[in-house]
Design a protein that fits this description.
The chain is α+β, with helices and mostly antiparallel strands. It is built from two helices and nine strands; from the N terminus they run αββββββββαβ.
Length: 187
């Protein structure tokens, strides 16, 4: 009886430690850089690259270029709308940037699974999402839920902000842009 009690107590302790472990996977050391407001495509209403394949533990860092862009997680079925119930990530409108520069800060998320992550820019001045400023991480290339279809479905939608506080960010972290220390012009 003592042995069974000890095994139960040890199992409970292990289960307790497992549930207290951090939710994020250890980082792989790989960073995928995505540039919001690329001037090379769609009049600057573009993420570059707009389709990224990332592994669990990889980091995705959004660099913000000219204007005031955001990045908001959405679902394929509801383009230009944040995930329901406050889930997902939102950079906030924290990155106003002068032309031909990058912002002093970036927004980073960590990949925690291989499910597709759909995202868009929630800037309503100029209808960025409806004009194609969206992207995907880990698109299923064997299915019919493609980035082209997401963009097509977004054309007649209305952009929804994830928060009444447009500077409130969630689901990632804002930090200094490492490119600024490497000679990139930042503002």
């Amino acid at each position: 009886m003592i042995a069974i009690t000890s095994i139960i107590a040890a199992s409970a302790a292990i289960i307790g430690l497992t549930s207290a472990a951090p939710a994020n996977a250890p980082t792989t050391g790989v960073v995928h850089n995505i540039f919001a407001g690329s001037t090379t495509a769609n009049g600057g209403l573009h993420f570059e690259p707009e389709n990224v394949v990332a592994e669990v533990g990889d980091l995705v860092t959004f660099h913000f270029q000219a204007k005031n862009h955001t990045v908001v997680q959405s679902s394929f079925d509801k383009p230009c709308e944040p995930l329901a119930g406050g889930a997902g990530f939102f950079s906030g409108f924290n990155f106003p940037t002068q032309p031909n520069t990058e912002n002093l800060n970036v927004f980073t998320i960590q990949i925690t699974n291989k499910d597709p992550i759909w995202y868009y820019c929630s800037q309503t001045v100029g209808d960025h999402c409806q004009k194609g400023m969206s992207g995907v991480i880990n698109q299923n290339f064997d299915g019919d839920k493609t980035l082209a279809k997401y963009k097509e479905n977004s054309v007649n939608t209305k952009t929804v902000q994830p928060s009444a506080d447009i500077k409130a960010s969630q689901g990632g972290w804002i930090h200094a842009n490492p490119s600024c220390a490497q000679g990139i012009q930042c503002s």
